[in-house]
Amino acid sequence: MKKNLFFAGLMLCMLAMLSSCDKKKDEPNVVDPVGSVVGTYNGNIDIKMNGSTIGAIPAADIVIAKVSDKEVSLSLSNFVIDNLLTEPATIKIDKCAVAESGEGYTLTGKQDVTLSLPLLGPTTCPVEITNGVIKNGVFTLILTVQAPVMGQTIPVVVNFTGTRK
Fold it and tell me: pTM score > 0.90 for this model?
């Protein structure tokens, strides 16, 4: 009888221990904004100056790569504008901040980029992400390039819309 009571007590203790063990609590769904936007996006580019279209690049690739837990780099290779650039350029912004925004993510950043311009040769031009949104795998980007043209600085607006490859 003592033996049965001992085993019953032991079983109750084991049952109490097992039932008191915490199951994995519902942890909040941790979102990695940088990991969510990294990739290659393929789409079309429309280039405007003074509100008029001055060029287009079909099937362009923009690469977004991780720099840190909160930043990415953005790179557009083989960027060409007929009659404005003397050779293809790479527009790269080394540090773009990524933030969650509603159901998507926003990118912000700016950097000086060297472009080869007629009569001026290699010229430093400020480039800024005016609007960068990634939502449901679609990347909408507006870059503003401040280009010196005929003695004045004129904003060249680069519109990109594409999807992740």
Answer: no
